[in-house]
Structure formats: C-alpha cells, structure tokens
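Suppose a colleague, Dr. K., hands you the sequence of a protein chain of 93 amino acids and asks what its three-dimensional shape might be. Before reaching for any lab equipment, you can write down a predicted structure in token form. Begin with the sequence itself:
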Amino acid sequence: MSELAAALDIVGARWALLIVEQLLEGPRRYGDLQRELGMGTNMLATRLRELEAAGVLRRLPLRHNTRAYALTERGLALSAAITALRRWGAEQT
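The predicted structure, expressed as tokens, is then:
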C-alpha cells in the first residue's frame, strides 16, 4: 500500500477532513461540530470514533456527559495538507 493510500484510509472518508479543519481552530464540543458542519449525528459519531482510533483526535473530559474533541499532534500535522487543499479548491472555482 502506498503512503497516500494509507493516509486516505484514515482521512479520506467523507467529512473526515472537514472535522479536522474545524478542530484546527481549537477544541470543539460534539454539538458545535454537528451544527457547524451540518452533518447527521450518526455520521459525526462514526467519523469521530474512526479519527480517535487512528490517533488524529482525542476526547476531552467535560462535565455533565458532554463531549469535546481536540486534535493530537498527528491531527495537527494535517494543517499543511488542508491549507493546500483549500488553495487548490479556490483555484477550481
């Protein structure tokens, strides 16, 4: 498997990079991610579990059974790739 294929196995699923993009701005609560991204709760929960299992993000302990998420070092390393994709997307419009 190529390095690109290995990376896409982790962040290539729909919504994954959009979640990472939101978390690059800082930790977010589950409900805030859902509202900001406009995605269904089932899909958000699935992607968060996958990204957590891959070491891209981690859950933060909060009170009252709320959940928040923050990027790990591995997740923060995606910043340059997301910036490059933003530039590429802007050139396509």
